[in-house]
Design goal:
Blueprint (H helix, E strand, L loop, with lengths): L4 E3 L6 E3 L4 E6 L3 H4 L4 H4 L5 H4 L2 H14 L3 E6 L10 H4 L11 E2 L2 E2 L21 E5 L10 H8 L3 E7 L1 H14 L3 E10 L3 H16 L3 E3 L1 H8 L1
Parallel strand pairs: 3-4, 3-8, 4-7, 8-9, 9-10
Antiparallel strand pairs: 1-2, 5-6
The structure holds dicarbonimidic diamide.
Keywords: Hydrolase
Protein name: Nicotinamidase-related amidase
Organism: Labrys wisconsinensis
Length: 223
Amino acid sequence: SDIAVAVPARPYPYALVPDRTALVVIDMQRDFIEPGGFGDALGNDVTRLTAIVPAVARLLAFARGRGWPVIHTRESHRPDLSDCPPAKRLRGNAALRIGDEGPMGRILVQGEPGNAIVEACMPLPGEIVLDKPGKGMFWNTAVHDILAGLGVSHLVFAGVTTEVCVQTSMREANDRGFECLLIEDATESYFPQFKAAAIEMITAQGGIVGWATPLATLTEACA
Ligand code: C5J
């Protein structure tokens, strides 16, 4: 049905249509989140990211209980890097490039240990796992067709990092006509000021990219 539930949110209540909603969990990968991974090796404080793992796991349990489709993304490239533009590979730390051997296997390469999703957020059989070569989830993936096939118009977002892959994916989804809600305590950045600014940007100007709310507000509104 198209019956909507009003979820209190920034900048005003989000009209969630449960029968047309999917959960999107962005890049909850060991290499970004776990101590000893790629993110850690680059000098980032991963404790901020490990701290949201339980909230993302609770959100997954909630979505599964509701029967929502669940889409997990992984930032990843083919082993031959044919889907990694040189401009992406050459960016940043010359000692740790995409495809190089990192602390948890080859960096951002499909099938490597660090590319896997953290244990507590592991996809279940039947859930969609999307390998995406970009920061956003639409570039070079089948996700638009997958969502159309499922009849989804509303997307609830979680994952890392807020201002990079989560925000890019939300902006891409917003341009494609999806109504997007970010779960504030189920997303995180290495930089707290970037997380706060990303949420401000998303919700500014009457929700120019979408809405944001805490997990408990979503679950209470749907109870
Ligand atoms: C993600 C990144 N997943 N920060 N990647 O946000 O490069």
